[in-house]
Amino acid sequence: MNLQLDEQGRLKHLLTTEGLPRSLLERLLDRAEPYARAAEAGFKKDPLLVGKTVVNLFFENSTRTRTTFELAATRLSADVVNLQVAASSTAKGETLLDTLKTLEAMQADLFVIRHEASGAAHFFAEHAAPGVAILNAGDGRHAHPTQALLDAFTIRRHKHKFEGLSVAIVGDIVHSRVARSNIHALRSLGCTDLRVVGPPPLIPAGIVELGVSVEHDLMRGLDGVDVIILLRLQKERMVGAFLPSLGEFHRDYGLTRERLARLKPEVLVMHPGPINRGVEIEGEVAYGPQSLIIEQVRNGVAVRMSVMAEILANTQ
Amino acid sequence: MNLQLDEQGRLKHLLTTEGLPRSLLERLLDRAEPYARAAEAGFKKDPLLVGKTVVNLFFENSTRTRTTFELAATRLSADVVNLQVAASSTAKGETLLDTLKTLEAMQADLFVIRHEASGAAHFFAEHAAPGVAILNAGDGRHAHPTQALLDAFTIRRHKHKFEGLSVAIVGDIVHSRVARSNIHALRSLGCTDLRVVGPPPLIPAGIVELGVSVEHDLMRGLDGVDVIILLRLQKERMVGAFLPSLGEFHRDYGLTRERLARLKPEVLVMHPGPINRGVEIEGEVAYGPQSLIIEQVRNGVAVRMSVMAEILANTQ
Amino acid sequence: MNLQLDEQGRLKHLLTTEGLPRSLLERLLDRAEPYARAAEAGFKKDPLLVGKTVVNLFFENSTRTRTTFELAATRLSADVVNLQVAASSTAKGETLLDTLKTLEAMQADLFVIRHEASGAAHFFAEHAAPGVAILNAGDGRHAHPTQALLDAFTIRRHKHKFEGLSVAIVGDIVHSRVARSNIHALRSLGCTDLRVVGPPPLIPAGIVELGVSVEHDLMRGLDGVDVIILLRLQKERMVGAFLPSLGEFHRDYGLTRERLARLKPEVLVMHPGPINRGVEIEGEVAYGPQSLIIEQVRNGVAVRMSVMAEILANTQ
């Protein structure tokens, strides 16, 4: 049974980009387009979801991500409730379920869930009542599907197609839900030259099975690419355990102006944010002319509006 | 002088169910009915309170209760402000008053107040400006009137009348604002066979004066009842002081499948939540076919909408 | 270049009252008038800013101030996001900028900023994208322009003009952004007899250059005044460093009924709140017939609505 799609292939929950058909991904990107354009023209409010209730249920603190979902729901005129829950207070599956069932009973229509445990969003989707939708806003190392969608949306706005595009994802692949969700989405959308680049301890075994190539040398990995997706290095967890030092990582994998100058002139630089200046990226590159980092944030609201509209149009 | 009712008998503040006339209680339940039905049909939004300001002023942390009041006000299209105040920072009556007067000056129309001190809601109602309403969301051991209303609403939806109904309230009666508010409401609504059941240290002296009978043996107390209202055991405060152990409480007073099977087949099980599985109730009973626990949560939003609509229709 | 005004003299950002022309100040007060009157008549909601996004970005905790801005924006039908940020986590200017740029990318239209560092609001205004407005809700000792506007609005409602009015500002002038903003606003509005009163350590050197007179003796400073603006004493920071004791401050500078009785009978008493009873003011004076303290809070919402309406009518 497919947790994400109903019998007619419509989106019920968005948990992961893995297994999502290309037509659905494209529809989600298409649906984001008018939201992005209207906002650029100063029109941000759509009455589509008046009377719907969206609950931001965040077990992991992320003001930035929570705010984009809050704005997306608010601009669709839904009622939004923000709940920040200490993960420790709901450690047991039983209690997680009580929380879900209680909020469901208050007739919430959609839960946006962020949790440090991989699989948390699936757990909620398995137990959700019919007509209640789960939107994964990041679960452990597993998936962050709206980030992948907004990245694909941003790439498409600049490159117009995925066929023939070379994309490199650089950095800490092993711990990254963003990398995993991007690989599934970009592969499904038709991108065939997809590379992951990083030091051996940060590249998971078996990643090639997802249809990507692996490169440990940065400049070889970036050779001829059209798009670079840098990942945020979780600095605290890294040094000692996976990396000798941040300085060494920057020396070997940091994207600098000097390195950027040796690549294709029209190469685009992306990063899910927040950036670590001087670690995975130089500040001048982050705010330079080839960077799409700020545009990614902007597109993030439009893409999340698209996903909410798509899912809630399928409930009643 | 009646703090809750004006000269025409209309509701100004809701502080306690004590002394509320049957006709008013029934009107509040009647008014909740269309909200409950509309929400079940997927219609949750009513423009009734556009432009009104509801302040959730919580001196005691309760995300669950706060969320139901927030949703109730939002679905009535009121503007809602959530204020979580550390009780310690407003320990003195003087400062409580400053807080009230400041928020009143911002033209709040209704304050939903939760406070650990019994009488806090009365204090606010005594000092509120004309046209400013106080809604008690639980004050100390004193009262929790909307919980009593939603319990009555839930019972009425299933049993249709209160005359001839046998209702048992089980557990820690002495510390429970829910028990007290339920007794007043159910008595006023016409329930004559109302029993409280629990170990002697948890039954307050003089409770029989409220028109209830007392039983210390669980199965004798539940004999022939139509509705069981279990109370949440405040575990931390109990053991040692009032009870030998949680296991012993469960052995003597926990509602299990086995015990439930020996009661009237149509008996209904209620609990204000959140439940302590394996203490006052077995998990299988809580989610079993006779449990109304989830329905209580759902009805809680409709009943709170009804109370807000009733009170704010009396102000301008 | 003027950060606050565009080439046509329209308000882009509100950072300080310093340098604002009288005509603009008067327009802001005029625009607040219908909001104040409508709210008094029970009408609080204006659809003016539907679809606009207001972000309350508070680096300093102030529930009271945040609530007035939240209500002002909500009553203008804007979407409001509250972000409480620990100042420590954004200590470096670089990171402050990342926060601003990220939220800008989510198409926020107006940022209400409170920060403990003087100049923080200017920093944001200097770096804000075109069409993004900054509203200073208090930055360090520097400025609190909406407080000054609401004070001027309150004075004008009672005294109808500023010419010929004597106003004394009493207390801790040296640390007070309220004092500074009030002086600039009242001077620009035509008030010529403006006095600051307090003990020598709390009067900044050079204050006379702003066009005020200085008095160290309270009753001499209040002689013949029409309006007294008391300041909140930051008790924790004061004793030892600037003052021998709170009792001594109250003895020398506290406004008591007895002192008030010796002044002009129609003198008005103002305070930005929250008051320290028994320090800068006696409780009986604070809630007495000459006090405008509660009215200041009420006017604060109308004035903030006026400022938001004025600024956002200049963007698109």
Automatic annotation (TrEMBL), chains A, B, C:
One of its GO terms (cellular component) is cytosol. PROSITE patterns: CARBAMOYLTRANSFERASE (PS00097). The keyword Transferase applies. Carbamoyl phosphate binds at residues 64-65, 114, 144, 147, 273-274. GO terms for biological process: 'de novo' pyrimidine nucleobase biosynthetic process; 'de novo' UMP biosynthetic process; amino acid metabolic process. Residues 12-156 form the Aspartate/ornithine carbamoyltransferase carbamoyl-P binding domain. It catalyses: carbamoyl phosphate + L-aspartate = N-carbamoyl-L-aspartate + phosphate + H(+). Pathway: Pyrimidine metabolism; UMP biosynthesis via de novo pathway; (S)-dihydroorotate from bicarbonate: step 2/3. Its EC number is 2.1.3.2. Residues 163-309 form the Aspartate/ornithine carbamoyltransferase Asp/Orn-binding domain. L-aspartate binds at residues 92, 177, 232. Pfam families: OTCace, OTCace_N. Catalyzes the condensation of carbamoyl phosphate and aspartate to form carbamoyl aspartate and inorganic phosphate, the committed step in the de novo pyrimidine nucleotide biosynthesis pathway. Heterododecamer (2C3:3R2) of six catalytic PyrB chains organized as two trimers (C3), and six regulatory PyrI chains organized as three dimers (R2). Belongs to the aspartate/ornithine carbamoyltransferase superfamily. ATCase family. This is Aspartate carbamoyltransferase. It comes from Stagnimonas aquatica. The gene is pyrB.
